[in-house]
């Protein structure tokens, strides 16, 4: 490879974005009390809570994702959904053994409808900075 080829290769590699994601699941003070609190806020078929650390070009951020699945009586009003999502994120943060573990909190309202072998999924998500909770 000639010098020009090597130079182009290094320019190409330096302009690439490298992202890695690894699991960084949360620890809770009392998961049973948290489940009761979430159930008192909103009735859903299921809550899934997953944490991860995302590194892009050596810069790391941490995120916790709270998925609510097939919730009943969720308002379609945008402001009310934001308020509910923020309340859910705040409750999760309060119950973490390390409340500073995550930079962002993502709350998803997921609706799944199955008809035979076909499943239709819709979702809305809201992201909050940890410092805003």
In brief:
The chain has helices at 3-15, 31-41, 78-94, and strands at 19-23, 46-56, 59-69, 104-115, 118-129. It has 133 residues and is an alpha+beta fold. It has one domain (18-132): Alpha-Beta Plaits (2-Layer Sandwich), CATH 3.30.70.
What can you tell me about this protein's structure?
The structure is a single chain. This protein is an alpha+beta fold and 133 residues long. It has one domain (18-132): Alpha-Beta Plaits (2-Layer Sandwich). It has helices at 3-15, 31-41, 78-94; strands at 19-23, 46-56, 59-69, 104-115, 118-129. The chain has a 5-stranded mixed β-sheet. Helix 2 runs antiparallel to helix 3. The mean pLDDT is 87.
Q: How far apart, in Å, are the first and last alpha carbons?
A: 54 Å
Taken together, the total number of domains comes to: 1
**Per the principal axes of the C-alpha atoms, what is the gross shape?**
globular
Radius of gyration: 20 Å
User: What is the CATH architecture descriptor?
Assistant: 2-Layer Sandwich
Number of DSSP strand runs: 5
Count of separate DSSP helical elements = 3
Helical amount: 25-40%
Instruction: State the low-pLDDT regions, or none.
Output: none
What does the average pLDDT come to? 87
